[in-house]
Design brief:
The chain is of the alpha/beta class. The chain has nine helices and nine strands. Helices cover 40% and strands 21% of the residues.
Length: 234
C-alpha cells in the first residue's frame, strides 16, 4: 500500500508466500534488504530432465502425424506371399501406403518367384534409379511373408523361410543398393524371439493386422523413418 508521502511499502505477504513455496519443494529462501537493493535467494532440489533421443522425437512425430504419412513418390513396393488372399491384402497395403499401382509388384504365386526374388529386386533397383524430379534414387519397400508353403510337381511340400530369402538377397546387394531398400518380414508369429530373428535377417517386422489405412500408416511410418530418416518439413 502507499503511505501519506506516496512511498511504496510492502506488506511482506510475498516473502511469506515464497517461503512456504520453498518449504513445500524441500528448499528454502531468504531475503536481504540493503540500502540500494533487495537480494532474494531461492534454492530447492531439482532433477534435470533427460534430453529426448532422436528415436523418441521420431516416435512422437509418428504418433501425431501418421495419418498424413505416405511413401515418397516413385517408391516401388514388392510383396511376397503364398496365399492369393494375402497377396490381394498386401497389394492393398501398398495402396494405403501411397505406392502407385504401376510400381507395385505382387509375387508368391509360384515358388520360382521366390527363388528369383533377388533378380527381381536387382532389376527394380536398376530400372528405378530416379522416379522423381530430384536426384534422389527411388526407395524400395519389401513385405515378405515368413512362412511360404508350396506343393511341388511331385506333390512334395516346399517350405521356404521368407526371412532367410531376404537375408541372402540383401547380403548380395551393393552397399548403395541395400541402403535404398526397406525389407520387412510379415508374420503372425510375433514373439520377442521371432521379432528379433526377423530383425537380424531383414530390416524389421511387419505384423499381420487388419488392412485399415490408418493402422498401416501407423505401423509403417516409424519403420520408414528409422530406416531413411525423417524428411525436413521446410
Amino acid at each position: 500500500h502507499q503511505d501519506q508521502d506516496d512511498k511504496l511499502i510492502s506488506s511482506g505477504d510475498g516473502a511469506w508466500i515464497m517461503s512456504k513455496c520453498a518449504q513445500t519443494l524441500g528448499g528454502s529462501c531468504t531475503i536481504h534488504f540493503e540500502p540500494d537493493r533487495t537480494v532474494f535467494f531461492f534454492q530447492c532440489p531439482v532433477t534435470v530432465a533427460p534430453q529426448p533421443s532422436s528415436n523418441t522425437k521420431n516416435e512422437n512425430a509418428n504418433t501425431m502425424h501418421h495419418t498424413n504419412f505416405y511413401l515418397p513418390p516413385g517408391t516401388v513396393g514388392i510383396v511376397v506371399d503364398d496365399s492369393k488372399v494375402q497377396r490381394r491384402l498386401m497389394d492393398r497395403i501398398l495402396s494405403y501406403a501411397g505406392v502407385e499401382e504401376s510400381n507395385r509388384i505382387v509375387l508368391g504365386k509360384e515358388p520360382n518367384e521366390i527363388f528369383q526374388l533377388g533378380e527381381t529386386l536387382a532389376d527394380v533397383l536398376k530400372k528405378h534409379p530416379s522416379q522423381t524430379t530430384t536426384t534422389t534414387a527411388s526407395k524400395v519397400l519389401m513385405l515378405v511373408d515368413e512362412n511360404l508353403d508350396y506343393t511341388g510337381a511331385d506333390s512334395k511340400q516346399i517350405l521356404i523361410s521368407g526371412s532367410r530369402v531376404v537375408e541372402d538377397l540383401l547380403r548380395n546387394l551393393s552397399a548403395g543398393d541395400e541402403a535404398r531398400v526397406l525389407a520387412l518380414i510379415r508374420s503372425a508369429n510375433d514373439s520377442a524371439q521371432d521379432v528379433a530373428c526377423y530383425a537380424s535377417r531383414a530390416h524389421g517386422f511387419f505384423p499381420k493386422t487388419k488392412a485399415q489405412k490408418a493402422k498401416i500408416q501407423e505401423i509403417l511410418m516409424p519403420l520408414w523413418h528409422e530406416r531413411f530418416g525423417v524428411p525436413s518439413l521446410s
